[in-house]
Specification:
The chain is mainly alpha-helical. The protein is built from 6 helices and 2 strands. The protein has one domain. It has a two-stranded antiparallel sheet. Helix 1 runs parallel beside helix 6 and helix 2 runs antiparallel to helix 6.
Length: 182
């Protein structure tokens, strides 16, 4: 399987845009920000940065002469590990845990959609690649995982933008929410 460096670099560039938008939204807020907003901004930036790294892993490894199953196995292992490290660290963060709890209670369908509709399809191709069951599809599996991670980044950005709009609606106020100063 030949590596499509141009596609992987393009995915990394798109992810960089998500990181930039997330950071831009974060710095253009008033001098106080709701804790839930901070958790969402962190989510957009973390998913985007992870995606940039994951998209560039095979490009970098191929420079060392790695090819075929070895390239895709190591890339998938690193991507899978990065993904789970991000999940575990996020779940340990009290801000993110509180946001997840609130999201699960207020929008259970969206919560389930994210985990079943985006997270499982991201991880399954990586596991299939690591198991080596379909060697001719390993590069396609990796790209599939990247695309689902890109969908996650878009999903996180849409949630962030939507939550910003909710704060601006008449009758809604962030005064009752916990806030922190920048």
């Amino acid at each position: 399987m030949q590596i499509n460096s141009g596609l992987l670099i393009a995915i990394a560039e798109i992810a960089g845009i998500f990181v930039g938008f997330g950071a831009l939204i974060g710095i253009t807020r008033e001098n106080k920000i709701a804790i839930a907003q901070l958790a969402r901004i962190r989510g957009v930036v973390i998913v985007g940065l992870g995606l940039i790294i994951a998209a560039l892993i095979p490009v970098g490894l191929s420079l060392y002469g790695l090819t075929d199953h070895t390239l895709w196995f190591i890339s998938s292992l690193i991507f899978f590990s990065l993904n789970w490290t991000g999940i575990i660290l996020s779940m340990r963060d009290p801000l993110y845990r509180e946001l997840m709890k609130t999201e699960m209670q207020t929008s259970p369908v969206i919560y389930v959609l994210f985990w079943l509709g985006l997270e499982l399809p991201l991880q399954a191709p990586l596991v299939l690649t690591m198991l080596g069951l379909f060697p001719n599809l390993e590069s396609a599996f990796y790209i599939t995982a990247l695309l689902f991670n890109l969908f996650q980044a878009a999903f996180a950005l849409v949630q962030l933008v939507h939550s910003q709009a909710d704060l601006q609606e008449p009758g809604r106020s962030t005064k009752s929410q916990d806030q922190i100063a920048d």
